[in-house]
Design brief:
The chain has about 400 residues and is of the alpha/beta class. The strands form six sheets. It has an eight-stranded mixed sheet, with helices on both faces. A six-stranded parallel sheet has the order 3-2-1-4-5-6, sandwiched between helices. Strands 7-8 form a two-stranded antiparallel sheet.
Length: about 400
């Protein structure tokens, strides 16, 4: 799968360095050529000989060691890299790269490289959550550097928290994803909504729906993978955030409406995947409503129709909607496509096995303006997301708006 690809693995000084040996082994088995750069602190945790034995390549530990043949080593490494992976990425290396410091071989190669750079942080949970570290991560992400989120669990010092190095198969999967996905959306700005909204009734109750956010998050991840600048406006969900995506969290339909209408002018493509509540309680109690013997009536009022409002002001932007139905799928989808001035709609029947809410797969039909319909078989939600983006990129009349 990775034959002909060169992966530079930068190993920093952290207890999780031992896990990176497995990452290198897996990359080699997939056909990649792996070059290892170890920082001075890294060799105190794992010996260079270990990595050399697995990678079948000399391990670089000293920037000023005389090379076996003449070249400027940090430049030659930077040129040959298809991707640079820093694992474990410590607070130190993240801070150095964010500050433009190049004082050892790893930081110098990163500065000289044009290849994508993936940071895989691993550190104490308090260090990871430190505002300075988070500021550095945000600054690097804005510059196009990529990050994997640490796992949550037992840390080396015996505490529980977010800071564990992701498991080697997950790291390798992320490397494969970065190296194999086409970058046909580079330079485009995409706005996506996802998840449900919650409309409060009282301090403990609300109106919502079964949306998990998985489909919208998959579309956001796929667009970011393909090089787009992505903003995701998300209702409350319990799933991991997509990498390299700007996320704005909202709770209610009114909050989502405000964020979408504030943002949409800055984007080329708008994909509305969120399951926005159509109604909200007309009156919200400040205290919990107590159960009574007689019936209770709840008066509802309409929420803003965000998609329809966007259809009236979208201009040359591409506007894509979604619909989840239990009956008359195509008829309802076509009606929504026309009524809300969409360029394309993605429809799925949530009663089908393997489709709909909370599932890891989906079965979708893509309908374009003009009536063209494409029916897709059951597939993962990420695969569905890429098919949706494929169709968006072929829409007639597409132009970049900004």
């Amino acid at each position: 799968m990775l034959k002909g690809k060169t992966v530079i693995v930068g190993v920093c000084g952290g207890i999780a360095a031992y896990k990176v040996v497995d990452v290198v082994s897996r990359l080699r088995k997939l056909g990649a050529e792996v070059e290892i750069i170890m920082t001075e602190n890294a060799i105190k945790f794992v010996t260079p000989l270990t990595f050399q034995s697995i990678s079948h390549r000399p391990v670089i530990t000293d920037m000023f060691k005389e090379p076996e043949y003449w070249d400027i080593q940090h430049i030659s490494l930077a040129k040959k890299a298809d991707i640079i992976v820093i694992a474990p990425a410590t607070a130190n290396i993240i801070g150095k790269i964010a500050g433009g410091i190049a004082d050892d071989m790893l930081s110098t190669v990163v500065m000289a490289a044009k290849a994508p750079v993936l940071f895989v942080p691993a550190m104490n949970c308090n260090m990871y959550e430190n505002p300075i570290v988070q500021k550095n991560i945000k600054a690097l992400t804005a510059q196009g550097y990529m990050f994997m989120e640490p796992d949550t669990g037992m840390l080396a010092e015996g505490t529980q928290g977010k800071g564990r190095l992701p498991e080697p198969p997950d790291i390798v999967k992320e490397i494969i994803r970065i190296l194999t996905v086409k970058k046909d959306m580079k330079g485009l700005k995409v706005l996506i909504t996802a998840g449900p909204t919650r409309e409060p009734i009282d301090p403990v109750r609300y109106i919502s729906n079964r949306s998990s956010g998985k489909m919208g998050y998959a579309v956001a991840q796929a667009a970011a993978d393909r090089g787009a600048s992505v903003r995701l406006i998300s209702g409350p969900v319990s799933i991991s955030s997509p990498y390299n995506v700007d996320i704005v969290n909202v709770l209610t339909a009114s909050e989502m409406h405000a964020e979408v209408m504030k943002s949409y002018k800055d984007f080329d493509i708008i994909i509305m995947v969120a399951a926005v509540a159509d109604y909200k309680s007309a009156e919200i109690s400040d205290i919990k409503i107590k159960k009574k013997d007689d019936e209770m009536y709840l008066k509802l009022e309409r929420n803003p129709d965000i998609l329809k409002e966007l259809g009236g002001v979208k201009g040359k932007r591409l506007l894509v909607g979604t619909c989840a139905e239990t009956n008359d799928l195509l008829e309802n989808a076509k009606e929504k496509l026309q009524a809300k001035n969409l360029d394309m709609i993605v429809a799925n029947d949530v009663t089908m096995e393997g489709a709909g809410f909370e599932a890891e797969t989906n079965i979708i039909k893509i309908i374009k303006r003009g009536g063209k319909i494409r029916e897709l078989p059951i597939m993962s939600k990420l695969a569905c997301a890429h098919e949706i983006l494929n169709e968006i990129m072929t829409l007639g009349g597409y132009i970049k708006c900004l």
